[in-house]
Amino acid sequence: MNPNWAGAYYLALLSANTAAGPAELLGLRFCDVFADDPETARIYIHENIKNSHRVREVPLNSDAIAAARGLIALAKSRGASHPEHYLVPFRVRTGEYDPTRHGHWPRGAWTEMCAAAGVKLRPYDLRHHALTRLAEKNPEQVVLKIAGHVSPQMLRKVYSHVRLPALRLGVDSISSVSRARPVKESSAPKKGETPEQTLFRISKLAEQLGIPAEKALQLLIEYEREQALTKAERKSK
Question: Which residues contact 90 (CB under 8 A, 6 or more apart)?
Answer without folding.
Answer: 97, 98, 99, 100, 101, 102, 103, 104
